[in-house]
Amino acid sequence: MDTFHVNTPERNTFVNITAEVRHLLAKHQFQDGLAVVYCPHTTAAITVNEGYDPDVVHDMLLWLGRAVPHAQPGFRHGEGNSDAHVKASLVGSSATLFVEKGDLVLGQWQAVFLCEFDGPRTRTVHVKWIGAK
Amino acid sequence: MDTFHVNTPERNTFVNITAEVRHLLAKHQFQDGLAVVYCPHTTAAITVNEGYDPDVVHDMLLWLGRAVPHAQPGFRHGEGNSDAHVKASLVGSSATLFVEKGDLVLGQWQAVFLCEFDGPRTRTVHVKWIGAK
Amino acid sequence: MDTFHVNTPERNTFVNITAEVRHLLAKHQFQDGLAVVYCPHTTAAITVNEGYDPDVVHDMLLWLGRAVPHAQPGFRHGEGNSDAHVKASLVGSSATLFVEKGDLVLGQWQAVFLCEFDGPRTRTVHVKWIGAK
């Protein structure tokens, strides 16, 4: 298992971590199987979406912020970040990627993101490599 | 593949199943790879989120209930549980966890939950163990 | 890795791809492990939900369309399909399925869907087979 850290500059932000995953892949010379990217936090998540136009992430964060407002009547959790927990389970704690011939199999516009919903923080990301059969 | 059952006491509830997964892991003495937790139902789901403060689950269920009301104009499905199907696809039918040195790799606050959206019922959970490489 | 293509007839639609995955499984005589179904697009997704009553998919699309409207104040992405990107990350880019004794382990009502959110298009689906251990 590999582990790296990501600094998130705002409360809600996506950080493109594709280059870090590719760097680890090259280091291991892993050829064929799965790269599973896992977030061990409950107020952050991992997703695959467009990495080319930053307006896509802007619009996704805008929608998430409107759909899951920070403060809501009836929320009980004392830390006041229940919105971040909701977003984390909607987006998911991991992404499963394919590796073929030593490279990630990503669509033309796809990138892997750490999704921060309660930053700024330093977040941990784990990656595990599973051979195909 | 392992299989166990979970009784869900309410229509909408999350049941912490981390101990069941850890119990199976110990029984198999599985050391290194993935534990994939799968829900074979279409009105329930699996998620990873905070297991420490029960108010987090309360707040997540509150948001889900507001965002996806039980009855909605235009819903056609005769069983009247379309809200549960929507929630199931938002949260997802499985969680992929890491195993290292014979234990689950979970963040400090993370737990694995069966998410019930159309209970009370007895639900089935499958777990499969995949070796790392 | 296997690859197949799916024609999507509308802007928002789910296409049941279970038979294609089962066909590939039979061709490989793969017996035991994971079938990971991956969507290399950023405005489409993969989910597992009910394949029996088409009204379930109708209701899921109805909810998604209401919750994530096509045009929204503040959206910046020039292609005008930010709603599709949001839906893609809510539903997720892959599904992890179990294979036992040469068949998919699906619940009674479960099917695997390619979820189109910006069609009509011809979409690509990848499947990778990972042996259990």
Summarize the structure.
With 133 residues, chain A is α+β, with helices and mostly antiparallel strands. Chain A has helices at residues 18-28, 54-67, 82-91, and strands at 2-8, 13-16, 33-38, 44-50, 94-100, 103-105, 110-116, 121-131. In chain A, the strands form two sheets. Chain A has a five-stranded antiparallel sheet, with helices on one face.
Main sheet of chain A?
5 strands, antiparallel
State the CATH class of chain A. Answer: Mainly Beta
First and last CA, distance of chain A: 20 Å
Q: What percentage of residues of chain A falls in helices of 4 or more residues? A: 25-40%
> Helix and strand string of chain A, N-terminal first?
EEHEEHHEEEE
Structural class of chain A: alpha+beta
What attributes does this structure have?
alpha+beta; 3-stranded antiparallel sheet; 3 helices; 5-stranded antiparallel sheet; Jelly Rolls; 133 residues; homotrimer; 8 strands
Can you describe this structure?
Chain A is of the alpha+beta class and 133 residues long. Chain A has a single domain (2-73, 81-132), classed as YjbQ-like (Jelly Rolls, Sandwich), CATH 2.60.120.460. Chain A has helices at 18-28, 54-67, 82-91, and strands spanning 2-8, 13-16, 33-38, 44-50, 94-100, 103-105, 110-116, 121-131. In chain A, the strands form two sheets. In chain A, strands 1-8-3-5-6 form a five-stranded antiparallel beta sheet, with helices on one face. Chain A has a three-stranded antiparallel beta sheet with strand order 2-7-4. The longest helix of chain A has 14 residues, at 54-67. Chain A is elongated and about 50 Å long. The model of chain A has no long low-confidence stretch (mean pLDDT 97). Chains in contact: A-B, A-C, B-C. The interface between B and C is medium-sized, with 34 and 34 residues.
